[in-house]
Amino acid sequence: MRAAISIKNISKNYGALQALDDVSLSIEQGEFFGLLGPNGAGKTTLISILAGLVTTDSGHAAIMGADVQSQFRDARRMLGVVPQELVFDPFFTVRETLQFQSGYFGIRHNDAWIDEIMANLDLTGKADSNMRSLSGGMKRRVLVAQALVHRPPVIILDEPTAGVDVELRQSLWQFISRLNQDGHTIVLTTHYLEEAEALCQRIAMLKQGKIVALDTTANLLSQYGSVKKDGEGKTDLEDVFVNIMSGGAR
Ligand SMILES: Nc1ncnc2c1ncn2[C@@H]1O[C@H](COP(=O)(O)OP(=O)(O)OP(=O)(O)O)[C@@H](O)[C@H]1O
Questions:
Q1: How close is the Cα of 46 to the center of ligand 1, in Å?
Q2: Where is each ABC transporter domain found (predicted)?
């Protein structure tokens, strides 16, 4: 079976800064995968390369077998990206925003699917509201909806729960988990490590542009978790993250 995402020896410099240093990674179809790392580790740069927004200096990446540069259109059609930044045209309504996004992928008459996505994200009541009138959390829901209009098999979410309330986080995770159960490949970046621990089957950790850990969540916990001094209490992904990032991993 083709990998959902294949990344081979990718490096990327911004001037003197090496944002990615020979990164290789394969994410299988149907995985719920976590891409973690401190601020500036290179997560968004990697996602931008996969989305065709940033070019690599060396290496290759493919989405469902389609090269992100030489087969850009095919690769982009296979991918839905929920970006970190809340960027919208303030004059469109929610429905228009989603129709416009469908048009970008050459899809007409997409209203039945748009209605279904909006219902799942509790956006139906806001369908005719202008984007500028929405709260930050509602805008975040529209970003998720936008990523799904063309029914991509692979979905990347770049810190989708930054600054959103508990209720939305939970409904978002229910919806994303259901998409994963339906066979979608999900890649998540987040600084909420308890979310990654609960949701992701496998995790890669980036530090200064390099992959410093790549394993199942269970293996990372058993190999890099701290044994609490009093012998009580469970180790968690935050322990693992701190241990790996401080270089103190066993
Ligand atoms: N367009 C750019 N020009 C110059 N430097 C950039 C550019 N984009 C990113 N960088 C730098 O590349 C490095 C990696 O940034 P990136 O945004 O990929 O990290 P990140 O892991 O997504 O961080 P965060 O968790 O803060 O979102 C950082 O040092 C950043 O300042």
A1: 10
A2: 5-233
pLDDT digits over 21-80, tens only? 999 999 999 999 999 999 999 999 999 999 999 999 999 999 999 999 999 999 999 999
**Within this chain, do residues 54 and 169 fall inside the same structural domain, yes or no?**
yes
Atom of ligand 1 nearest to the CA of 15: 4
Encoded tokens for 163: 């600054």
Q: What separation in Å is there between the alpha carbon of 33 and the centre of ligand 1?
A: 21
Range of the domain at 164: 1-78+154-211
| ipTM score of complex | 0.97
Tell me if 110 CB under 6 Å of ligand 1: no
What is the number of the ligand 1 atom nearest to the C-alpha of 38? 25
Per-position DSSP letters for 207-236, written without gaps between them: ETTEEEEEEEHHHHHHHHPPPPTTS-S---
Give the predicted TM-score (pTM) of the model: 0.91
What count of other Cβ atoms lies within 10 Å of the Cβ of residue 67?
A: 14
